[in-house]
Amino acid sequence: MRCKITGLTIMHCTRKTLAALFLPALLALGSVAPGQEKPARPSPPPPQEDVQARIRVTTNLVVVPVTVKNAAGRIVLDITRDEFRVFEDNVEQRVDIFSNDPFPLSVVILIDNDLETRVAEQLERTLPALAAGFGPMDEVCLARFDQTFKECKGFTRDADQLLTQLKRTHVQSSPPRTPAGGTLESGPKINGIPVPGASQIPPSGINLRGQPTKNVDDAVFAAANLLKDRGRERRKIILLVSDGVNSRHNRVSFNDSVRALLTGGISVYGVGVGNAYFNRELPVVSKFTRTTLTKYAHATAGDVFYAAKRDEIEELYPTVFEEARNQYTLAYTPRGTDRSLDYHAIEVRVKRPGLSIQARDGYYSGAAPQ
Fold first, then answer.
1. CB 150 within 8 A of CB 144
2. Please, which residues bridge with residue 112 across strands?
């Protein structure tokens, strides 16, 4: 059976094929466990007559990126392999491969293209600051969405080209929307009194019937498809900048989008602006902004940051990329779990007290929906 690589899992591989495909990508930067020596240069291949006698093994290698933070919310970078515990379907697993080396990034910047006018203008002025967060080995694709996904022009590693794209990006806007749970903003007024016969103006991302029109799930799914085939040696993320409004008319469900993200090894990092900022501490937001950013981040080992002012937004960008770049990478071969299941839950713990863990909730054995 041929070697098969699907997102987080690598199946039906010989030891030689596994080493050829995975270890150069994960360990090329010198990623070895503490106390271990780097592997010696491989010996020459055995004579032809010995090839058929070699033992073949089947393995599913599950790769889990993990972020560790202290009580102040700062990234902790000195955790050792022995301090981590990994559970799959409540069965503890042995960590076979460990790395805390920074990885180059493959990023889709996904910009909400239907924000309130004030928020859109403010966000647009911050976009050039995004370019400073990327290094020469990173690759970036810039996309937008509202009811449809605005395809990006391809990935680029050219910092000048990216800066030019960001400066030329126009974020479309709609009239201001009312706070969560409020009524639609009325039309023209004179001395605070609505003009007779004037029609109501829908808030951003909302139609005249009060229903959201922005399709976040479709946009995230499309961005995941752009990232799924990027190199295995790269950290793949979606930077979702939005107010969190999501319609009920997505062609792709939230669950299918998450499946595509997990099988592609992709994390979502959110920057919440507009109403998302003002609703950030509410346990239950309005039905139009029901923690969309938080749900994607939690499911994929990402994170969410919020800002209300231009300078605050600009300060968040390097924070997001630093966190994404400096995740730990744990990999294990599942043992003692039911391999016939399609979905497997993952839990990561750390023995050191006072720390918080961000890791994806699980993974799918099968391929992502197309």
1. yes
2. 145
What confidence tens digit (pLDDT) does each residue in 66-100 have? 999 999 989 999 999 999 999 999 999 999 999 98
Nearest to 262 by CA among 254, 271, 272, 270: 254
Burial class, 181, CB count within 10 angstroms (exposed 0-12 / middle 13-18 / buried 19+): exposed
The three-class DSSP label of residue 214 is coil
315 membership: H or E segment, kind and range: helix 310-325
β-bridge mates for residue 6, sequence order:
9
Reported as a single tens digit per residue, the pLDDT across 278-308 is 666 555 444 444 478 989 998 999 999 998 8
Q: Are strands 105-112 and 189-190 parallel, antiparallel or unpaired?
A: unpaired
Question: Cβ contacts of residue 242 below 8 Å, gap of 6+?
Answer: 110, 111, 112, 115, 214, 216, 270, 271, 272, 273, 276, 292, 293
* Cα(117)–Cα(175) distance, integer angstroms: 6
Q: Could you give the strand order of the β-sheet that contains 266-272, starting from the edge strand earlier in sequence? A: 149-150, 139-145, 105-112, 235-242, 266-272, 303-306
How far is the C-alpha of 130 from the C-alpha of 128, rounded, in Å?
Answer: 5
Q: Which residues pair with 98 in a beta bridge?
A: 330
DSSP H or E segment with residue 85: strand 84-88
User: What's the token pair of residue 211?
Assistant: 């229903």
How far is residue 369's CA from residue 252's CA, in Å, rounded to a whole number? 10
Overall pTM surpassing 0.85 (yes/no): no
